[in-house]
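hey m, so remember when u said the tokens were messed up on ur end? i reran from scratch. heres the input so u can diff it against urs
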Amino acid sequence: MARAVPRIKLLLLVLIVVAGWLVVRESLHGSGAMGGLAALVATLRQAWWAPLAFVAGYALATTFGFSGLVLTLTGGAVFGFWWGSLLNWLGANLGATLAFQLARRLGRDGLETVVGDRLAGIDRVTHQSGFAWLLRLRLSPIVPFNLLNFASGLTAIPWRTYAAATALGILPGTLVYTFFADAILAGSREATHAAFLKVLIAGVLLVLLSFAPTLAKRAGWLAADSLDRPTARPPDRP
């Protein structure tokens, strides 16, 4: 029975995430998908609490696995670059933390009962080089944001390390995608040379974003050997 409880919690985690994702998805599609969401936020943006509502909605949606990229583009299109970047960054960080805590509290023990000692190797990496390991993955635009949130919660990485690497690692992508959405909206509203130039810059920034992990390593943010050297096994949890 003692071994069954963690597995039941793991199954509960899966059910919660799937059910939450379906509810969020149907809610957004019921409003006309993302166009409806954008129209709704655009209507509410005159209210003082509209930014708070957007951040809360962003956090809740990403907690249950809804696309953070779609929400980031929506924030940029509705609130513009500066406010959109701030609101997107706050919402993404809150959603990442909620997903992490959900996975840690419901899924970690159950995963240990399923894979056993095979989880120890990942735990060693996350204890010794967790910040560099996660930062490298956060900087890469090809690594799914939501999947990494839940996967990190299933490892032994400390929450503070996770939160710091997430806050820093998602910042370049948040700025670039918010700028891209704002540029596209500006280009659709005014066919001017300035608008075209803004869209062109946004496209170049999206390409450069794929080189973010390499640039971070060359800048010394990521030590090349930090993920390769042998590490001591973390102490057993009580």
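this time it looks ok to me. DSSP finds eleven helices and no strands in the chain. if urs says something different then somethings off w ur setup not the seq
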